[in-house]
Amino acid sequence: MNGNDLHKINRASAAAIGFIIASFVFLTLVVVVKFTVNVPAIDADRTGTIANELMMIRSNEVVSLNNPGWVDKQRGIVRLPIDTALQISVEEWQNPAQARADLIARSKRATAPVQAAPAKPSIFE
Q1: Residues 82-116: pLDDT tens digits?
Q2: In terms of DSSP H, where are the helices of 37-119?
Q3: Which phi and psi (to 5°) does residue 74 adopt?
Q4: Which end of the chain is more exposed for a tag (fewer CB within 10 A), N or C?
């Protein structure tokens, strides 16, 4: 072996040792960061928000199912509690022909186009 070969071996050994040391330092930093930094989950607060929104939706559903109210006042569509709606249906369907005619009339009235409110004149006209 001549001096040039030893120089190449020393350079290769130094590079390998440097790589091993750098890898060890990197892995040490990764482990330290992993166990010392507490990162919250990306959607940690989303779970609470979703639960609150779902609770509000369900409470609104209960109110809607148990209390009468207007769905579309202009068309005369109301929301009734289920028990009341069933009772009215039973009473109306004692005469099926009349009930069917009323149902068709209500359906036509509910699906008829609504007249748009007259447009306000522009202040520039």
Answers
A1: 889 999 999 999 999 999 999 999 888 888 887 77
A2: 44-66, 82-92, 96-111
A3: -65, -35
A4: C
